[in-house]
Design goal:
The structure holds 2 protein chains of 2 kinds. Chain A is an alpha/beta fold. Chain A contains 23 helices and 10 strands. Chain A is elongated, with a radius of gyration of 28 Å. Chain B has a domain of 141 residues: P-loop containing nucleotide triphosphate hydrolases (Rossmann fold, 3-Layer(aba) Sandwich). Chain B is 40% helix and 24% strand. Chain B contains 12 helices and 10 strands. The two termini of chain B are 35 Å apart. The chains are: A alpha/beta, B alpha/beta. Chains A and B meet through helix 5 and helix 6 of A and helix 2, strand 6 and helix 4 of B.
Chain lengths: 552, 260
């Protein structure tokens, strides 16, 4: 798909993201200005506080943004998931340049001028407002400008905590190797950074002392003006769209469901399946994509009503049990503990497992006659491995895995983005990876899964986790989850993933087709509500028949 | 005013001031009467600037008292005292973001004069210090020469008609020719306006040109306080050292300096 046709199709979503992004940047910069400038002024009056506070602000900036978001999530009131957390983090980042430039700007004023102001009989207030702030204004504005440009960048990462913004496209693009998504996220962000830089640059000049007589022109000015204009146009459209969109009507909580998902394709697809089925029953749905284990926090706090999960993940990563291998036992214990601890129900298994798949190139497997992971053990000393961050750190991940199979690689495994490991393997950069068993590209990239002959990996059956109160509030949900029981085979899941990841198709469209093919949503369903009961049973029977059909 | 005319406008009584353990001013006694220009002469670090700063309550004495119109500075409201004391510093200390007009009108503005009156006053003062109001009122300090900035600084100090002027080496950074002409004009101006001023300098020539009395300071003490005529004949060794520099000058430029 060309970039332009991508823009045509996703224009309104892009504009919404631009508007979200800009709002996050503006709100956080404004708050940082309101806190930072008074703090800076205070520090010019109080030498003792200067060092510790500037030091603290410095430390804030050295915390990697993703880590800072992580720290904030469990904190009540300021933390959690969504725009609030993002704004808190953005404000913390923006404070340093603003405070520091306020201090530098005010302390940098010619001592003669300050002395004259005092000697003329100006009060402290008059000196501040008439002398110090006007003279320091251009330096302070430089600080605001730096803060704002930083914010535009950091805001892209805020998508990881569900705050929205252009980071949504950038993250999605990275995961799906979709350059259109990457560009659609990165270009507006870059324009926004340029625009805010030049707007505040102009403001700085206005407040600067050399302003009145000189006029600087040139290509920087021109580029800035173009960037401003573009941003304004995008913003205008964004607001216009947001007024037009019916999203305002979604705000009533009763007939409305928030479906969460993790930030990878499969989770998104599973969420989309439920979302479309619920929508087909006339319930409005909001979709929320979240990183890491955030969906769990969001679910427990009531921000979302349900999200797709895997039994093994719930068992080890959330309930913190040591990995075990019996699928039945894992499912039962997850169901019982979630009910008791979180008031969350566990749906019947969806029919496939997304376990870690130890993958090698098909060529290697044939040449070396590899079938099981144990076959690799004697060869590992000459091999390189690449694993996602998740696999490197989790309880049922690399350390235990290496121990279980006595694996020792030529070098410390490369820790990289999970989706990049497939490419790294197929292009020979590494020789073994831990992928997902339902990854769509396994076949396309000519990779082979080795059998877990020592049964190291715990079962990862796909399930939905649903809040109990959501089931009461939206009763159709129970039917839908029952309908989906054992509905999706591993092969089918791989195919759905492949459609989105490799063929770059729109997930919503892929899901819509699949639901139709599976008779889970019928075109005539809404026109003939009287047939609903019959439809459920019928669809399930057909579904049964289909799932017995040979897998492609 | 006539009743109090005989009393000194400024009086230092046994004033000492130190920063930490270092004495800056030791036991200073001084009276400045109305209409006179008292020049404090001395090397840098002798305490002359501190003396000025004690006068408008930028500093408070460690011991002793500084009386302004017979009232100790400790009892003056500092803002009120400073607004009725003109202050001129080196390079003028003009606000770079204010036009000449706003700079000169600063204290009247703080005192809430009405705009028309401020404008008239500013134009009057610009004319007084030899700057054409039409040309200079709307300029910024960066658009003035050093001498012009100093003239504006003097005009600003005079704006609210303060009874007392404090001048801290106002002409120190100017080139010799500009300095000489400003000194002449300032001498005429103070005589005409009958202003009381304390003028700090390290330049004996300036002291002799402008002072009705000269106070020679060294290491925080007032060594002698004389009229220019008796200063020239002083037998004090430190004063003689200063006078020697003058002689050196006049030997070199004998024809011009003979008039002094």
């Amino acid at each position: 798909m060309s970039f332009w046709s991508f823009l045509e199709q996703n224009g309104s979503e892009l504009l919404t993201l631009v508007a979200q992004h800009l709002k996050l940047v503006l709100v956080s910069t404004l708050i940082a200005v309101l806190i930072g400038i008074p703090t800076g002024i205070l520090l010019t009056r109080n030498r003792a506080l200067r060092k510790p506070i500037l030091g603290l602000a410095n430390v804030m900036q050295t915390i990697p943004s993703l880590a800072l978001f992580g720290f904030l999530i469990p904190i009540p009131f300021i933390g959690g998931i969504g725009a609030r957390t993002a704004i808190v983090a953005l404000v913390l980042y923006a404070l340093l340049p603003i405070i520091r430039n306020t201090v530098t700007g005010i302390l940098g004023i010619d001592q003669n001028v300050r002395q004259a102001a005092v000697a003329m009989g100006m009060t402290a207030q008059q000196i501040l407002w008439q002398v110090e702030l006007p003279l320091a204004a251009s330096v302070i504005l430089t600080g605001v400008r730096v803060a704002m440009v930083i914010s535009v960048g950091v805001t892209t990462i805020a998508a990881a905590v569900g705050a929205g913004g252009l980071g949504v496209y950038i993250f999605r693009g990275l995961r799906q190797y979709d350059n259109n998504l990457l560009l659609a996220g990165a270009i507006p962000a870059a324009l926004m950074a340029l625009a805010s830089d030049s707007v505040l640059g102009l403001a700085e000049k206005w407040f600067g002392l050399e302003k009145r007589r000189e006029k600087t022109k040139g290509w920087i000015g021109t580029v800035g003006v173009i960037a401003i204009a573009l941003t304004l146009v995008l913003l205008g459209f964004g607001f216009w769209r947001s007024f037009q969109s019916p999203s305002g009507t979604l705000s009533g909580k009763v007939g409305r469901l928030v479906v969460g998902s993790k930030d990878f394709t499969e989770s998104g697809l599973l969420a989309e399946i439920v979302a479309q089925m619920v929508e087909a029953r006339g319930v409005a749905v909001e979709r929320l994509e979240l990183g890491g284990n955030l969906p769990h926090d969001a679910l427990v706090s009531g921000r979302i009503d349900l999200y797709p999960e895997y039994t093994g993940t719930a068992f080890t990563a959330i309930l913190h049990h040591p990995p075990i291998t019996d699928p039945r036992a894992v499912y039962d214990q997850v169901k019982q503990e979630y009910g008791a601890r979180f008031h969350v129900d566990v749906s019947p298994p969806l029919g496939f497992e997304n376990t870690f798949a130890i993958l090698v190139r098909a060529a290697d497997a044939t040449r070396l006659n590899l079938k099981t992971i144990s076959d690799v053990t004697p060869l590992a000393r000459g091999w390189r491995a690449g694993f996602g961050q998740d696999f490197m750190s989790r309880a049922d991940g690399y350390p235990g895995f290496a121990r279980a199979y006595g694996l020792q690689f030529a070098e410390q495994p490369h820790e990289m983005d999970l989706s990049l490991t497939y490419i790294a393997l197929s292009s020979g950069k590494v020789d073994l990876i831990a992928g997902n068993s339902t990854e769509g590209r396994i076949g396309a990239l000519n990779l082979v899964q080795l059998e877990d002959d020592r049964h190291y990996f715990p079962p990862y059956e796909a399930i939905y986790l649903v809040r109990q109160d959501s089931l009461q509030r939206v009763p159709v949900l129970q039917d839908i989850l029952t309908q989906l029981a054992n509905k999706i085979s591993t092969a089918q899941m791989r195919k759905l993933n492949y459609e989105v990841d490799a063929l770059k198709r729109n997930p919503a469209e892929v899901v819509r087709e699949w639901l139709k093919a599976e008779f889970l949503v019928a075109a005539w369903e809404r026109r003939h509500p009287c047939l609903l009961l019959f439809d459920c049973g019928f669809a399930q029977q057909v579904g049964c028949l289909r799932s017995q059909a040979p897998k492609s | 005013m006539s009743e109090s005319n005989s009393s000194p406008l400024v009086e230092f009584r046994n004033v000492s001031y130190s920063v930490g353990p270092t004495p800056i001013i030791s036991n200073l006694n001084l009276k400045v009467s109305r209409g006179e220009t008292l020049v404090l002469l001395g090397e840098s670090g002798c305490g002359k600037t501190t003396t000025l700063r004690l006068t408008n309550r930028l500093l408070l004495p460690g011991s002793g008292e500084v009386l302004i119109e017979r009232q100790p500075t400790t009892q003056w409201d500092p803002i009120r005292l400073r607004r009725r004391t003109g202050y001129v510093i080196q390079e003028g200390g003009l606000f770079p973001h204010f036009t000449v007009e706003r700079n000169i009108g600063l204290v009247p503005t703080l005192e809430h004069w009405d705009n028309a009156r401020i404008r008239d006053r500013v134009h009057e003062l610009l004319a007084l210090v030899g700057l054409d109001p039409a040309e200079f009122a709307q300029r910024y300090p960066a658009e003035l020469s050093g001498g012009q900035r100093q003239r504006v600084g003097v005009a600003r100090a005079l704006a609210a008609e303060p009874p007392l002027l404090l001048l801290d080496e106002p002409f120190g950074a100017l080139d010799p020719l500009t300095r000489a002409s400003l000194q002449q004009e300032f001498a005429l101006l103070t005589r005409r306006l009958h202003k009381t001023s304390i003028f700090v300098t390290h330049d004996l020539h300036e002291a002799l040109t402008l002072g009705s009395r000269i106070g020679l300071m060294k290491a925080g003490r007032l060594l002698l306080l004389e009229t220019p005529a008796s200063f020239l004949n002083s037998t004090d060794t430190y004063a003689r050292a200063y006078l020697d520099t003058l002689r050196l000058d006049s030997n070199q430029n004998s024809s011009r300096e003979r008039q002094v």
